[in-house]
């Protein structure tokens, strides 16, 4: 397993049981200690059975505790480098608060970039490029990401559609065809509205791309291709808000790859947009 243990835990955390979250917290807070401890040592420290620790390592993708411990030793620097810069304190100066917000965004982008896989990027752009129409779906805060993506893809050679109203989105989903591609954005991957839209699209046979922060969420499982955005919740700043910049960057990446793949058509589309916009600018 090449993915960072820290990132795996962060993307699965909300889907872990309370006991499993306690194990996850202990691992993230004591990486060096865990990597040099036996399964019995950790179980005793957490007052759980050895089998509970073993099953936890299986759940996050390892063959067992020995496989997990080997990965811990190999990734010790990554785990020890966990930064707590996002914990803004009341007595921080305004500049320090702003810097911590920037640091948190940088951390989200860095973590999300580590999870990117070239084959998934290629597959996603293949689906978009081969589609007759591209539809964007998201509700609440995710609708903002969908709107921004719509604004970008209007410059692409692919016809793109997006409605901010949920009922209109549901109606659009019902009119999709197997030749269309739909992108679904949801931080938790558990939005009932977005899941219903995605299920409607899947039944019809439309191609689906999902962007979420929860790898085990119901929505993630509905994607032909699924991208994971990583973020952490801070006081006065929800995890969903922090993940937005990572989601926007994933969409930027898909857009740029698509445009370079279709340079001639892309230049023509951009030229048309710039020409009409120029008329209303000084």
UniProtKB/TrEMBL annotation:
Pfam families: HTH_6, SIS. Keywords: DNA-binding, Transcription, Transcription regulation. Residues 3-79 form the HTH rpiR-type domain. InterPro entries: Homeodomain-like_sf, HTH_RpiR, RpiR-like, RpiR-like_SIS, SIS_dom, SIS_dom_sf, WH-like_DNA-bd_sf. Coiled coil: none annotated. Signal peptide: none annotated. CDD domains: SIS_RpiR. Residues 124-264 form the SIS domain. PROSITE patterns: HTH_RPIR, SIS. PANTHER family: GLUCOKINASE (PTHR30514), HTH-TYPE TRANSCRIPTIONAL REGULATOR HEXR-RELATED (PTHR30514:SF1). This is MurR/RpiR family transcriptional regulator.
């Amino acid at each position: 397993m090449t993915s960072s243990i820290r990132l795996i835990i962060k993307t699965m955390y909300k889907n872990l049981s309370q006991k499993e979250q306690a194990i996850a917290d202990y691992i993230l807070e004591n990486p060096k200690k865990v990597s040099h401890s036996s399964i019995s040592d950790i179980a005793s420290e957490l007052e759980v059975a050895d089998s509970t620790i073993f099953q936890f390592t299986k759940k996050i993708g390892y063959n067992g505790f020995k496989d997990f411990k080997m990965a811990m030793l190999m990734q010790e620097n990554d785990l020890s480098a966990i930064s707590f810069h996002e914990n803004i304190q009341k007595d921080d100066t305004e500049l320090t608060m702003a810097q911590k917000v920037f640091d948190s965004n940088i951390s989200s982008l860095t973590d999300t970039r580590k999870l990117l896989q070239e084959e998934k990027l290629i597959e996603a752009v293949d689906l978009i490029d081969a589609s007759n129409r591209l539809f964007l779906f998201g509700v609440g805060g995710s609708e903002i990401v969908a709107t921004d993506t719509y604004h970008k893809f209007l410059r692409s050679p692919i016809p793109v559609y997006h409605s901010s109203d949920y009922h209109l989105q549901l109606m659009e989903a019902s009119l999709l065809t197997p030749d269309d591609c739909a992108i679904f954005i949801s931080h938790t991957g558990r939005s009932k509205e977005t899941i219903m839209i995605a299920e409607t699209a899947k039944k019809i046979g439309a191609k689906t791309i999902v962007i979420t922060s929860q790898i085990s969420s119901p929505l993630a499982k509905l994607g032909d291709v699924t991208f994971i955005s990583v973020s952490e919740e801070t006081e006065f700043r929800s995890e969903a808000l922090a993940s937005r910049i990572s989601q926007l960057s994933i969409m930027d990446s898909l857009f740029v790859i698509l445009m370079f793949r279709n340079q001639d058509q892309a230049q023509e589309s951009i030229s048309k947009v710039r020409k009409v916009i120029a008329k209303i600018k000084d």
